[in-house]
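Question:
When you can, review this sequence-structure pair and walk me through the tokens.
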Amino acid sequence: MKKKKIFYGFLSMMMLLSVTSLPAFAKESTTANGIQKAYIVPEDWGPVVKKSVINLNEKVASNSIGDENDEFTVIETKPTLTPSWTVVTSSSQRTVLDAYTSDEMGNKIFEDSNYITIEMYVSPTTDGEGAAFIYSGYNNWCDPYQLDIQLNGELQTIDGQIINELTIDKNIDLEGDGKICPEVDEFENSTFNASDSRVLPYAVYKPAEDNKKML
């Protein structure tokens, strides 16, 4: 009888240990940090911020992004022009169209990556979604320009950690090196010294040579 009590006591202890040790096998949660660049494309009404290309300190599993509704919230803050022609700084929510792992230029890839890209809707108004210029007598890059990236769902790192929060620098230098402009990169920039001593900047596009004649 004594041996049976010892056996059941040992069995109860093992069951208790197995239950209390379960959390050790749960996936760890972490916060990913990073910086972002604005992916700018030309539209009829001017340049627009179409994407945010984010460089994270964690490598994200490609199948863990874009699999949830309303996975991201993006708040855009920038100067806008009021009907009375005064410039004010205002914030509005961007419409997120897609999110995926990408290369450093914002091109979609189907591999794990430290880069994720959020693609957004743009609208044809100077104070609309994504407008990168502000008109105040003449066109200027929006300054300040911010994209506040908020993660509502979860991402997963390649080693199984759950990313449940993003800390992304929201300030973007549109006039400086805070942007990616694929179309602009196809042009060569140079300057011309005018006869009145002014230095005039210009850009030229040279199509690739293919040894074919135009008909």
Notes: Residues 2-11, 13-26 have pLDDT under 50 and may be disordered.
